[in-house]
Amino acid sequence: MAMAGLYRRSLPSPPAIDFASSEGKKLFIEAIQNGTMEGFYRLISNFQTQSEPAYCGLASLSMVLNALAIDPGRKWKGPWRWFDESMLDCCESLENVRTRGISFGKVVCLAHCAGAKVEAFRTNHTTIDEFRKHVITCSTSDNCHVISSYHRSALKQTGTGHFSPIGGYHAGRDMALILDVARFKYPPHWVPLSNLWEGMNIIDDTTGQHRGFMLISTPHREPGLLYTLSCKHESWVSIAKYIIEDVPLLLKSEGVNDIQKVLSVVFSSLPSNFGEFIKWIAEVRSQEDFGQTLSTEEKARVAMKEEVLKQVQETGLFRHVAAFLSSANSCCRNLPPLGFEDNLPNIAATVCCQGAEIWAGKYGSLNGYCCRETCVKCLKANGDKAVTVVSGTVVNGKCEQGVDILVPSSQTKQSCSCFASSNYIGMLPASNDVLTALLLALPPETWSGIKDKKLFQEISSLVSTEKLPTLVQEEVLHLRDQLHLLKRCQENKIDEDLGAPLS
C-alpha cells in the first residue's frame, strides 16, 4: 500500500471512517439494507477526481449532472454529450476558478445554467434537522443528489473550503458518506452529520456568507431546447447591463408612444457583439460518423426545436419584430452586426464553425475556425418529415473536418441545394426569432417605465408568458432565469443575494 503523505493524506479517524475499511463496509451494507444508498449507484458510476486543486466545485457538479443524465446541449469531445469541468464556465471563468476557487453561490449559478433544478440552502437559513431530511430524501432516490460546501477543519482534515457530493446516509449512526472529489487527497469516507453541519456552518471569508448545501435534481424537461444565453465572450457583461439596467431607463422617454418606437429604443443601441450573447442551439454531428441517416434521438430533438421555433413565430410580438426588422424606414439600419444575419450562407458558415468548436470540445475557444464550404441537404427516411442539414468543411489551420448541423425549420416547402439560392431565408432561427425570444425573456418590470398607459398595456400583453404555449413558455422562462443569474454575476452579488433558499 502506498504511504500516506506520498499518495494521500491520512484520513483523520475519528471523526471520519474510511469507506473501504471493515467498519466502512459494514456501514455501507447496513445503509443499503435500510434503503438509504439509492443515490449512491449513479454517483459512483460517474465518480471523478477534480483535475485542478481548486476545481472541487466544478468536479462535484459535473459528477452530479452526469449522474442525473442531464443533456449538456453540446458535445464534450467526439460524439459524446457529457459534462466536464471545462464546460462549466457560464458564471465564472475557468482561469479565475483555477487561481481562486469558486463560491457557493456561483456553483448554484452553474447548476442552473447547466439545466438542473436547484434548491440551495445556507446554514443560517435552515437547520440541521432540515438538512438531515434532505439528505435522507436524496439518499432514498436516484433522482436528486446533495452537494455539500464545508470547511475541512470541522472534520479535522487539512485544507479549507471544499465541495463534494453526499453519496448516502446511515440512519443508525447518523452518518453521511462523502464522495470526496479530491481522491488524490482523501478517499470516500463516512462522517457524523453533526460534524458535516459544523463544517457547513462556518462563514466563507471570501464572500462573508455561510456555507451550505444544494439539492440538484432533473427538471421535468431539458431547458434551453432552442435558445441559450452565453457569457463565453467578455462582451456579455456590457450586454447584460444594457438589457437589464439601460433599457428600462430608455423606455421612460417621452417619445416612446408605439410598439415600433419601443423596438427602436431597444434595438438601436445594442452593444457590439450582441450576437454572441443569445444563440440558437445547434444539433451537431460528424459527417463521417453518421453518414446520411438520422437516429431516432436526433429526429426527436430537431422536431422539438422546430415546435419551439413555430411557437415563437406565432406570437404577436414576433410579428412586430419581423415588421420592424424588415422595414426600410426603420432604425434597423443602425443596428450593430448581430452575428446571425438572415442569410443562410452566412448562418451556415457561422454555425458550422461553432459546430466544429463544439465537436472538438473547444467551444468559445480562441482558435480560429473557417468554414471553407457549405451545402444544404434534406434527409428523409421511412416516410418521415424531411430534415434540413447544413454540411460544412471546416478548417482551423491545422486540420479540416466535416460537420453536419441539423437545422430546425419552419418552412412548409423546402428544396435541397448548395448555395446560390435564397429559398432558405427565414427557415431557421435568425434575427427576428432570436430577438423575439430575448424580448419575451426580459423581466416584466423592464416595461414599467413606459408612460403611455395604453402602450404599456399593449406591450405587457405582447410579452406576457401566461398565455404562451407550454414549450415556448418554458424556453422563455429558462432564458429569464439565465438572465437573472447573469445579472447577479455581473453585479458580483450572486453570493449576497443567495440568502433564502433559491429554487
Automatic annotation (TrEMBL):
GO terms for molecular function: glutathione gamma-glutamylcysteinyltransferase activity; metal ion binding. One of its GO terms (biological process) is cellular detoxification of cadmium ion. Keywords: Acyltransferase, Cadmium, Metal-binding, Transferase. The keyword Endoplasmic reticulum does not apply. Its EC number is 2.3.2.15. It comes from the Eukaryota. Signal peptide: none annotated. It holds the Pfam family Phytochelatin_C. It is an enzyme of class 2 (transferase). The keyword 4Fe-4S does not apply. Residues 1-221 form the Peptidase C83 domain. PANTHER family: GLUTATHIONE GAMMA-GLUTAMYLCYSTEINYLTRANSFERASE (PTHR33447:SF2). Involved in the synthesis of phytochelatins (PC) and homophytochelatins (hPC), the heavy-metal-binding peptides of plants. This is glutathione gamma-glutamylcysteinyltransferase. The gene is LOC115962285.
